[in-house]
Amino acid sequence: MLDDLDRRILRHMQGDAEQSIPDLAATLGMTPTRLSRRLDKLREAGVLLGSRVVIDWHALGYTVEVSLRVTLEKANPRAFDEFIAKAREIPEVLEIQTFLGQVDVRLSVIARDMAHYQQIYRSAILTLPHISDIEALMHVARIKTNESLPI
Amino acid sequence: MSDLDVIDFALLKALSRDANQSAGALGRKLGLSQPATWRRIKRLQDLGIITGRRLELDREKLGFGVTVFLGVKLGTKGRVSLEDFERAVCAIPEVQTVEHVLGLYDYRLRVTARDIADFERVLRRRVMLLPGVGSVDANVLLSEERRPGPLG
Questions:
Q1: Do B145 and A96 touch (CB under 8 A)?
Q2: Model's pTM, two decimal places?
């Protein structure tokens, strides 16, 4: 189980994942060796899975982001698996999420501009299997993005 | 960004999978020296393409068993300031992301909670009391997968 120190460590790392071990240890008032040991334990326990860099797709020239909410034909038991397997083959799909609710699957799709989006939509998205309905939400702005857990 | 080459894209791909790799280890995989790798990563940061790092945690092991996406439609458009809504919604610790969208909803929120009862508390005591909230639609997340994206 996690104790208060583990939680403090994770809270700080969520706030600034780029801090070095010595800096973080100094902030928390502990020695780097002790911090490293704690981090190893959190990794072993499978709590700390790793870290990834965050890519700004806008800076790479992708100005359009659309959230596609898909309802599948539920009569077919293979609908989810087949839909998701095909969606993985579209490079512009950044996220695939499945839900319990009105929406079955959500795809986050990026495109260079609206013309490019239309091309992806027509040639790749609409050819995905078992779609019964699609709704699109166009991203205007990200207001909060840190995805921190309230540990 | 036509001035990025295949090595830059390979670096982005590797780092978006695991940001903990050292410049030396990455360079060996890509046939670059450690300083050359470091310079390329620095440049990707300076160009604003790499904006930071995100910690990957096992939510369930930390006790957050439920993730819900809320579609929020503001009720009294024009009268409520979007800034007021945004400031208030961002201050809720359980709200992990806030996206302003066009379409069926005005905002899309990612909410984390310990369990369904905890989620109900966040919904009733926090989200429903936000200034200007009209209708709220909820979908419970079952699984999620991040893809590398178009990195060549």
A1: yes
A2: 0.88
